[in-house]
Amino acid sequence: MSDTVKELKEKLCYKKTNGLKLDNVDFNAVEEFNKGYAEFLGYAKTERLSVKKTIEIATAAGFVEFRPDKKYSAGDRVYVNNRGKSLALAVIGTEPVEKGVRIAVAHVDSPRLDLKPNPLYEEAEMALFKTHYYGGIKKYQWTTVPLALHGVFCKKDGTTVEVSIGENEDEPCFVVTDLLPHLAQDQYKRTPGELIKGEELNILIGSRPFKDDESSELVKLNILNILFEKYGITEEDFLSAELECVPAGKPRDIGFDRSLMGSYGHDDRVCAYPCIMAAVDTAAPKHTVVSVLADKEETGSEGNTGMQSTFLEFFIDDLAAMQGGKGSRALRNSKCLSADVNAAFDPTFPDVMERRNASFINYGAVITKYTGSRGKGGTSDASAEYVGWIRKILDENNVVWQTGELGKVDLGGGGTVAMYIANLGVDVVDLGVPVLSMHAPFEVVSKFDVYMTYKAVKALFDAE
Ligand code: MN
Ligand code: MN
After folding, report:
1. How far is CA 249 from the centre of its chain?
2. In this predicted structure, which of 110-119, 208-217, 427-436 has the lowest mean pLDDT?
3. How far apart are CA 125 and CA 235, in angstroms?
């Protein structure tokens, strides 16, 4: 190659970078950040536990519960807890809120198996729970993996009983059984989506009968007796409970080189943790920064803890009103990263991706200009102007980043909360971590990409 061609190529051609080949990256910082993330993720198995853990982290970092009637000044750190399932952290800036805030939003709900309102039954002298799956799952993946149970019983007397069982090795766990291959001839004839049907996602929870007695359903009775002794609840208390079954266990390093991390629930706690830490690590910002942990993304962001609710809008309004300003003006001047994952290129399934526009493991945080499906249906599509501004701040802060689409144009698609934030008049684009096996009980990410997502959110918070 002649020097001219080389020079021209360098000057004119866009080149993606594998971050692990760079020598100006602090890989100790990558490891340290991921240690913190693994610890968070190992505990934060549900949206409720994510919010609980985040309040712990935030409180230790000087955040206090926000009071709308109070006046806060630059550098003050506050949080708003939305029903224990969604949360906003804010650090007040030196500029008026009306001049715009910097927002990062991630979601802390993940696909899982919820218990039905009347879940407990006995069949063939075994006790089981009926479930209703939450979010988009390949149902067959959820059989024969150890499951833990987390959630709350809200009793009629106004008290709440928290349940968290199955994560530690000295605790029992639960499981959805599957058919042995020897007898699966008919099961194999089903369509893949029906290989396991929703009503077959039944969780095995016990088999010991109450005692040698003539009565029926003694296994179920024995389970109820255990639950009463341990939690003080009766079968009727399931009617006002929220109980979520998730894959049991802690995150693990993946690969001989330990460059990757496998776990349940990366989508989207892998972006939530960077958003939390970016707020925690922001001391005296120019613009007020807000990190939001949202619920219900996996089911369409509906409900009063989802991003279609007024939670964020009214919080920004409260912040502006405290300075005599207007929330609508603040929102119009605000900039946001909708921090959510994208599908990483998988060498085993290359056909679903268009290589030039797919995101790759270790190539850094992935910007997804638009999501949606087919002809960009159901997306906000960030403006070129805003993506241009984001590019500048990412490059200025040495953030390794790439762009990605969610697979080939006609193959499928998906959405994020970006469009609901855009509806508030905020400039927003998706940025997050590329994930392998998304929505599976065990998802994989690159530690480098996790750290770069943190750096990206921090760059937004620090920007002029
Ligand atoms: Mn997500
Ligand atoms: Mn998802």
Report:
1. 17
2. 208-217
3. 18
Q: How far is the CA of 267 from the centre of ligand 1 (A)?
A: 5
Ligand closest to Cα of 433 equals 1
Q: Which ligand is nearest to the CA of 299?
A: 2
Handedness of CA 391, 392, 393, 399 (dihedral sign): positive
- Ligand sitting nearest the alpha carbon of 110: 2
What is the rounded average pLDDT of the residues 59-80?
97
By the 10 Å C-beta count (0-12 exposed, 13-18 middle, 19+ buried), 55 is classed as middle
What pLDDT score was predicted for residue 399?
98
Residue 135 DSSP code? S
432 band by pLDDT with thresholds 50, 70 and 90: very high
Q: How far is the CA of 363 from the centre of ligand 2 (A)?
A: 20
**Ligand in closest contact with the CA of 112:** 2
Handedness of CA 196, 198, 200, 202 (dihedral sign): positive
Burial classification of residue 179, based on how many CB atoms lie within 10 Å of its CB (0-12 exposed, 13-18 middle, 19 or more buried): middle
Neighbours of ion ligand 1 (CB under 5 A): 267-268, 340
Distance 421 CA to ligand 1 centre (A): 15
What's the gap in Å between 13 CA and the centre of ligand 1?
Answer: 32
Q: Classify domain 3-110+264-462 at the CATH topology level.
A: Aminopeptidase (3.40.630)
Q: How far is ligand 1, taken at its centre, from the CA of residue 297, in Å?
A: 7
Task: Enter the pTM of the model.
Answer: 0.97
Residue 416 alpha carbon to ligand 1 centre in Å: 6
Bridge pairing between strands 401-403 and 260-263: unpaired
Task: Compute how many other C-beta atoms are within 10 angstroms of the C-beta atom of residue 10.
Answer: 9
217 C-alpha vs ligand 1 centroid, how far in Å?
41
Q: How confident is the model over 372-399, as pLDDT tens digits?
A: 888 888 889 999 999 999 999 999 999 9
Which 8-state DSSP code applies to residue 345? P
Cα 53 to middle of ligand 2, angstroms: 21
Q: Per CATH, is 112-247 categorized as 1.10.10.10?
A: no
pLDDT, residue 378, reads 87
Q: Is the peptide bond before 186 cis (omega within 30 degrees of 0)?
A: no
Domain ranges (residues) in the chain: 3-110+264-462, 112-247
